[in-house]
Amino acid sequence: MSGALSLARRAGIVLALPAALIALWWVTSAGSDSFYFPPLATILHTFVTLWLSPDAIPNVVPSLIRFAVGYFAAGLIGIAVGIPVGASRKLRQTLEPVLEFLRAVPPPVLVPVLILFAGIGDEMKILVIVFGCVWPVLLNTVAGVRALDEVLEDVVRCYRIGRMARLWHFVLPGASPQIFTGLRQSLSVGIILMVVSEMFAASNGIGFALVQYQRTFAIPEMWSGIILLGLIGIALSLVFRAAEAWLLAWYHGLRRTQRAN
Amino acid sequence: MAAEATIAPAKIGAKIGAGIGAPARPGAPPKSGARTGVPAWLRGLSGLIGFALILEIVPRIGLVSPHYLPPFSAIMVALFRELMSATFWTAFADTMRAWALGLVISLAAGTVIGIVIGSSNLLRTLTYSTIEFLRPIPSVALIPLAVLLFGTQLESTLILVVYAAFWQVLIQVLYGVHDVDPVARETARSYGLGTFAQVRYLIWPTMLPYLMTGVRLAAAVALILAITSEIAIDTEGLGREISQTEAGGAVAIMYAYVIVTGIVGVIVNLGARALERRVLFWHPSMRLDAGSGR
Questions:
Q1: Which residues of A touch B45 (CB under 8 A)?
Q2: CATH architecture of A60-260
Q3: Which domains are present in chain B?
Q4: What pTM does this model have?
Q5: B180-228 per-position pLDDT tens digit
Q6: CB contact B19 to A (< 8 Å)
Q7: Cβ B280 vs Cβ B4: under 8 Å
Q8: Closest to A147 (Cβ–Cβ): which among B1, B19, B44?
Q9: Distance of alpha carbon B260 from alpha carbon A113, whole angstroms
Q10: How large is the ipTM?
Q11: How close is the nearest chain B Cα to the Cα of A111, in Å?
């Protein structure tokens, strides 16, 4: 009984402010005849007809596929290169300035650069996402491998644990909290690049549609696109958090017990 | 070095060093390779030279068409020629102004709002879901709105920069305020410290390391979004020069600008880290760092 009550209270606390804000938007924009700020009711109606229908597939699906391919490729490359670099002091010292430089290049400048190489097709957009997302993963993997427990490292060496077992049971799990930090940073970079690459040059995709609506002054459609991108951002971060909670459950548990002591 | 730069939000240097429960042992001998006498900076320099050589050789032997990637020397020539031109410095100043303004606005707003929300349990629980909901919205989603409202003016860039950088600061400040030692808080209350004195002597010092992490993250994000806006909206600045030189076929100049944005990014990162060390010289995390000689 009290459990259900406290659940209702928690839901109330979580939902109170968002509900109030949406209600405020709804009420203040209800009679709006401002061209740029149409009533929320109109926007939501447009959202349903525009994005919750089969017509949305040609724009939404290519965007998400390009994002997924680029993001996973960047993750794999970042981890695969980061482990040897993190494990070798010489390699790390040699590559550090170059990596620091490449990481500091704002990823969207790669859009014009990669158009030269790959045109304006899917390859360009995937490459842009890969190039932008790889650095946070790579540098965090390096940091994670570098910070591996030295005592455990000695134990692994003493027991002459083989290369693959060492990688799979010691290096990867040990570095994984840091790797996930990198993957989380890459997630927002990847969404930015997905949208920007489509805004700059594309024939489909959410970013492309958004720019079209803005250029043709289709204002409710444009607002609905903004809401869609927001929802995609939120959905991806929720998926990421669930994946992290599942894969790093052991780590968070460890931290909790450490803190409890 | 790279390690400190890529730390998760919500955590400060000292805690990350612990990684997976292995506290850094001050004075512990460095890992393998310490015996070889080559200093780190020399290895780094050789890495940079090697990178430049690859960029020089790859187009020269025809692995990549020089129309797409001119040799490194050609890019350098174009860069020095640009450095003499007024166009470059105007674009540079435009980018840096948008970056600095956006960063200052986000810092001020994030710090004030963070302290207000963070100091009240009620406000914190009430706003938590809204903040978590608004934060992951990609700021590039606001591009069409910014264009409609402000066209290619500075304000368009500022909207994107502030939206992206503000959350970085706010989240850090919220964690920082939350981290205030309960005993210190009770002590302050017993001694009758006023609101201002509490913020100044209790909250501020606790929060500062978190805030500096926020500054570092926000500075990098603000630069990315400033350049993004110049590329996607065509506001004045380095990003616009890149997209225009690409469209005009001046490839060497385009690469020169790309290199400039990278150098600006490195300077912003290094500057933020130097600032952090300076401001937090008294903090245990920095003193531990210095003591362990890393």
A1: 97
A2: Orthogonal Bundle (1.10)
A3: 72-267 (1.10.3720.10)
A4: 0.83
A5: 888 888 898 899 888 888 888 888 888 898 999 899 989 999 999 999 9
A6: yes
A7: no
A8: B19
A9: 14
A10: 0.82
A11: 9
